[in-house]
């Protein structure tokens, strides 16, 4: 059984990544070795599982059938490993969490540090990327998003609201004309997202202000905050970023005040996994508390 599950585990990675090299990186296994393991699995099953091409590994009909069975086995293993531990028991093992980089940089370090302090045998991996995570391919055990997905077999829970305002550095404001209204922004340099790399409409803040040109742009919240800190211009910032960004001042607070939300997203198959459910509860409570604490300082 152990050997069979190990073969399925490797097969899942190749099927999801559609590449020996990408799956090898994920598994920390040499691609050539992984290729031999897949060939051995196909031989043992007496059927081809992949169509190999320069573009990667695509599943055959037999591969699609095995994928469904392998994912069912994976879920059974997750449930078994979760066990029936009492809620007071500490968490252990590894949990990978995907999050947009603003949340990952300014909130999750504090939240996750507290969780692992209380659960010293737990390993938390934060994958900070400005995009949507594919939980069906198991890129992460769960993810935080800025909108609630409506497709896929997902569990979606609203965690908390957060707030954003226009801001600029003290040095920029001292060197440029006063900003008394939204119309005054036309005379100022704007900092924001790269327009064609906005992966969620909830992040298109400047469009709401009628801004069409962004002279200083990045797909990263952290980079935008640093641009503003360095006197690059005026931009929309998360209020929870400000305690970590001295020298930035909010402007036009009454005229421009945005509210967005964080959602915790999990795969539907994990709803009976007690371990992941307990971690989700800790994470949600920690995020709510950290957003409240950080915003109270602004």
UniProtKB/TrEMBL annotation:
<comment type="similarity">
    <text>Belongs to the LysR transcriptional regulatory family.</text>
</comment>
<dbReference type="InterPro" id="IPR058163">
    <property type="entry name" value="LysR-type_TF_proteobact-type"/>
</dbReference>
<dbReference type="Pfam" id="PF00126">
    <property type="entry name" value="HTH_1"/>
</dbReference>
<dbReference type="InterPro" id="IPR036390">
    <property type="entry name" value="WH_DNA-bd_sf"/>
</dbReference>
<dbReference type="GO" id="GO:0043565">
    <property type="term" value="F:sequence-specific DNA binding"/>
</dbReference>
<protein>
    <submittedName>
        <fullName>Transcriptional regulator, LysR family</fullName>
    </submittedName>
</protein>
<dbReference type="InterPro" id="IPR005119">
    <property type="entry name" value="LysR_subst-bd"/>
</dbReference>
<dbReference type="GO" id="GO:0006351">
    <property type="term" value="P:DNA-templated transcription"/>
</dbReference>
<feature type="domain" description="HTH lysR-type">
    <location>
        <begin position="1"/>
        <end position="60"/>
    </location>
</feature>
<dbReference type="InterPro" id="IPR000847">
    <property type="entry name" value="LysR_HTH_N"/>
</dbReference>
<keyword id="KW-0238">DNA-binding</keyword>
<dbReference type="InterPro" id="IPR036388">
    <property type="entry name" value="WH-like_DNA-bd_sf"/>
</dbReference>
<keyword id="KW-0804">Transcription</keyword>
<keyword id="KW-0805">Transcription regulation</keyword>
<dbReference type="Pfam" id="PF03466">
    <property type="entry name" value="LysR_substrate"/>
</dbReference>
<dbReference type="GO" id="GO:0003700">
    <property type="term" value="F:DNA-binding transcription factor activity"/>
</dbReference>
């Amino acid at each position: 059984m152990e050997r069979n599950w190990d073969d399925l585990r490797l097969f899942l990675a190749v099927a999801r990544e559609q590449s020996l090299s990408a799956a090898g990186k994920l598994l920390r296994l040499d691609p050539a070795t992984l290729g031999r393991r897949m060939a051995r699995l196909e031989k043992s099953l007496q059927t081809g599982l992949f169509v190999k091409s320069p573009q990667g590994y695509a599943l055959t009909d037999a591969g699609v059938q095995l994928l469904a069975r392998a994912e069912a086995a994976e879920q059974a293993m997750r449930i078994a490993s979760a066990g029936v531990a009492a809620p007071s028991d500490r968490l252990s093992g590894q949990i990978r969490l995907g999050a947009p980089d603003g949340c990952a940089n300014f909130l999750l370090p504090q939240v996750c540090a507290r969780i692992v302090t209380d659960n010293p045998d737990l390993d938390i991996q934060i994958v900070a990327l400005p995009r949507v995570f594919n939980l069906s391919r198991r890129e992460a055990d769960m993810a935080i998003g800025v909108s609630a997905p409506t497709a896929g077999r997902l569990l979606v829970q609203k965690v908390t609201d957060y707030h954003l305002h226009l801001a600029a550095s003290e040095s920029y404001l001292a060197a440029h004309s006063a900003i008394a209204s939204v119309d005054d922004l036309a005379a100022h340099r704007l900092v924001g997202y790269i327009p064609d790399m906005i992966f969620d409409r909830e992040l298109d803040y400047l469009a709401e202000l009628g801004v069409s040109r962004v002279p200083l742009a990045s797909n990263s919240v952290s980079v935008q905050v640093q641009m503003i800190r360095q006197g690059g211009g005026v931009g929309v910032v998360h209020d929870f970023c400000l305690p970590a960004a001295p020298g930035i001042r909010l402007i036009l607070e009454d005229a421009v005040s945005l509210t967005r939300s964080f959602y915790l997203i999990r795969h539907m198959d994990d709803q009976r996994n007690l371990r992941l459910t307990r971690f989700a509860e800790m994470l949600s409570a920690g995020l709510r508390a950290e957003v409240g604490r950080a915003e109270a300082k602004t």
